[in-house]
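Contributing new records

If you add data, match the layout below exactly. Sequence lines come first and carry their own label; structure lines follow with theirs. Keep one chain per record. Anything else will be rejected by the validation script.
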Amino acid sequence: MGLSINRPRRGSLAFSPRKRAKRPVPRIRSWPDEETVRLQAFPVYKAGMSHAFIKEDNQKSPKAGQEVFTPITILEAPPINVCAIRVYGRNERNYLTTLTEVWADNLDKELERKINLPKKEERKTIDDLEAIKDKIEDVRVLVHTNPKLTCLPKKKPEILEIRIGGKDIEERLNYAKEILGKQLNITDVFQEGELADTIGITKGKGFQGQVKRWGVKIQFGKHARKGVGRHVGSIGPWQPKMIMWTVPMPGQMGYHQRTEYNKRILKIGNNGEEITPKGGFLHYGVIKNNYVVLKGSVQGPAKRLIVLRRAIRPEEPLIKVPEITYISTTSKQGK
């Protein structure tokens, strides 16, 4: 009998099948339970990265009270428009289903670039919500972004559905009525020192082989078949004639929806000039609106839409405003 060599498999099967995301706007499927009545997410655009020095305020850290170097990500946060209220109820199978939608009267003309808006005479009103108040199980709003206010080369807005937090349905419904048709800023949802989850589409890398996609070992010498070593040794047995889905195969790499948890908000500012490097951010430009500084990196390339969601599983309620001593604004342009 020959010797059997056992080793861990090449590459992780997590998030399989690794297919392209359906659209560049992420879809949020889970929301945190909280008592505060407010929006639970806010869309932003990734501008770029830099570095900063902050005072370590975690008393459990060995560098507590000292200045520490940390990479940061700068996100531009133009205001969003609340264009509709969407309420959900339970069907006969106890699943959430849409009951009705109430659209605002003063809708932005740019919204017609994205969808066919319902006619004014066919739109539901606030009185229709009062008639079905007893059936409402969840309250959410439809918001759209304003890319025309940024340096992005587009005017077509993105539309997202965002849940309103809170325990009482009537309070959440009243808050939705108040903000319908209005503009909201990042400060209406988040504050400095909080933890947030980033949800977005990662950088796409196209069609890749087994070595780059799964980390398969390159074969050399007599093990390489016909002089080609960038392949797996075997994709399956002769009998049964079947290729398992676990076999490393070439295919799409990147451009997947991913969620990163507990990103700390270091700063929220309203003057983009104080954070924009000389010449602007590489592949993005100049920040013209409010901005958010996050600790660490964020998935996706520059210009990608990122949704900041309130932390669904925070490590600890850290709300202290961090003390930033220095933020680098040196030019990021390549030579």
